[in-house]
Design goal:
By secondary structure, the chain is mostly helical. The protein has seven helices and no strands. Helix 3 crosses helix 5.
Length: 114
Amino acid sequence: MLCHRAASYRLTHVVCASGPTTRQVRWRQWLFPQATKGWRPERFEHEGQALQFARQSKRIPIWKLGWATSISRNYLEKVEQGEARLLPECREELERVLGVPLKRRRKSRLDRTP
């Protein structure tokens, strides 16, 4: 009987889910499928500008990006201003969260020629 009550509570809880949780899904910031179409990180002067553009185009505040990646907000601000460079592991984490590459990954033309 205890399992039946727990199961019915879970069903009731899921069915009755309304209020701010249902409205939250509609306003998620990562539901823009075309936000990164035609993304070219090499058109920016430094990777901080690419980071800032990607963050602002997806409407992610800098504090929230820092919290999600566990990178200091001050460090991210310095990177965006061009005063600091991203460490490779920080860049990978930011690329994973933002969904765009912040640095060009192609081999140089000399390395590609046979």
